[in-house]
Fold this sequence. Notes:
Blueprint: H1 2-24, H2 36-39, E1 47-58, H3 68-73, E2 84-88, E3 91-95, E4 99-106, E5 112-116, E6 119-123, E7 127-134, E8 139-144, E9 155-161
Parallel strand pairs: 1-4, 3-9
Antiparallel strand pairs: 1-2, 4-7, 5-6, 8-9
Amino acid sequence: MHASLGVAVIALAAVALAAVALACTSRGDAPTQFRASDATPAYAPRARAVTITTVPLLVKEQQGVLPFLKEDFAKGGVLEGKEVYAFSPSTITVVQGDTIHFTFINPEDDVHSFVLPDLAVSLPAQKVTTATYVASRAGIFPFVCAIQAHLPMMSGQLVVLSAGSMRGAR
């Protein structure tokens, strides 16, 4: 009788172990009521205020302060026909569906522009300019100053995260 009890206990343990293993096995699709992602609300697009300033990095006006620039801007120099400007910040991150209210500050005496797919803004010298843009598609979108002498240095990127990736973000 002792031996049959031992066999029964082993059989019962094997059944219990199989049940636990089955319960712990991932089946891919859990019932809807158990999905945490279904309980979290969808991302609600927001209005975002973004200020971008044009910044001179290496420009002809600096030759008096930085004498090495005379050779760089001279005929045959590494900066011949170019000036190095930047946008600050040069990377902007928003979420798909967000409305961006841009404020562009151009404190310099040079004209610039801000060109993004579906948006082109002229940035007059020593002016503040505003524009509105809706980030309708997810992706990484380059923006540039379209003034030939400022390319390719004066550039940046708009990173638009998919709204689905923000599920439940507050």
